[in-house]
Amino acid sequence: MNGLVAEICRFVRERSSSGGVVPTPYPGLGVLYDTQPTRLEAMIYDPVVCLVLQGAKETYIGDRCIRFGAGESLIVSHAMPVTAAVTEASAAAPYVAMVLTIDLESARSLADELGVATNGREVVLDIEAAATDARLLDVMARLFRASLIPAEAKVLGPLYAREAHFCLLEADHAGMLRQMLWRDSAASRVGRAIARVRTEFAEPLCVADLAATASMSVSNFHQRFKALTSKSPLQFQKEIRLTEARRLLSVEGRNVSAAAFAVGYESPTQFSREYARKFGVPPRMHIARRSAA
User: In which order are the strands placed within the sheet that holds 127-131?
Assistant: First the structure.
């Protein structure tokens, strides 16, 4: 693993002066690199697997904290607003991780082909970390190396990505992922609604329409949605909106009104009030803080 860490560090240093998230030439595969611990930041996790090779990280979902470090991987089965921070990193031993987007449709097709069983159990942990299987680490390393050579990325990349999904289906901490792939499970049906909120977060939300997407009654959908995300559909949408707004403010440099309208707020005043309630400071402070850095 030390050799892979050195390769990724070299890859990042050739392409970025600040580190952070650095995409590879293969779509959906990226590497994470930090030379010092980071502050807790709000972000949206989409379905991914994150393999930590060096250092450690903490991710919070409400009051729940998931800590994972070198040799461990985090599986995220559906879109989820979280706060996260790198907790172990230094110039001599940077935080290094690989992240692969989980293609749920490809994974579902693979699960159907293999007859992957879920045992009918409802799994409540939507994000879980555990030791990384050696086979998954091996195929992710091969995918990273292939991504650097155009011909290999084109020919071998899709094969390695499919193999990585196969390994994920068998991972001990992929119970929720398997539930999401089982077409008739409550998790799978609610997952379709979650994906819809994720892509249409700026649009007015109608819970009845989401319930129809999940093929559930409104009351059952509301209960299942909250069990899966720890939030009501409206709360979940608000978390997505505010987290995306923070990115627009701090990364793209939007002004407060532009960010508010872009994420679906009709009133910048209401947006500022809810933003301050979530992040502890008015939205303009994040622009100023980032500009002054």
Answer: 20-23, 29-34, 95-101, 48-54, 72-76, 127-131
For the four alpha carbons of 277, 45, 29 and 98, in that order, the dihedral sign comes to positive
What secondary structure does DSSP assign to 158-175, as a single string? HHHHHHHHHHHHT-TT-H
User: Which DSSP state fits 91?
Assistant: S
Interval 213-235: pLDDT, tens? 999 999 999 999 988 888 899 99
**CA 268/CA 274 separation, integer angstroms:** 10
64: tokens are 């729940």
- % of the chain at pLDDT higher than 90: 65
Total Cβ atoms within 10 A of residue 286:
21
CA 146 to chain centre: 23
Predicted pLDDT at 8: 95
Please check whether residue 30 is in contact with residue 50, taking contact to mean a CB–CB distance below 8 angstroms: no
User: Tokens at residue 181, please?
Assistant: 């792939």
- Residue 289, number of CB atoms within 10 A of its CB: 12
56-61 and 64-69 as β-strands: parallel, antiparallel, unpaired? antiparallel
For 127-144, write each residue's pLDDT tens digit.
Answer: 888 999 999 999 999 999
Contact 41, 155 (CB under 8 A): no
Q: What is the pLDDT of residue 288?
A: 46
C-alpha 127/C-alpha 59 separation (Å) is 9
Bridge partners (DSSP) of residue 21 are: 32
Residue 149 makes CB contacts below 8 A (sequence gap 6+) with none
Mean pLDDT score across all residues of the chain:
89
**Which backbone phi and psi does 59 adopt, to 5 degrees?**
-125, 130
- Farthest-apart Cα atoms in the chain, separation: 55
If you search the block for the tokens 């390769």, which residue do you land on?
7
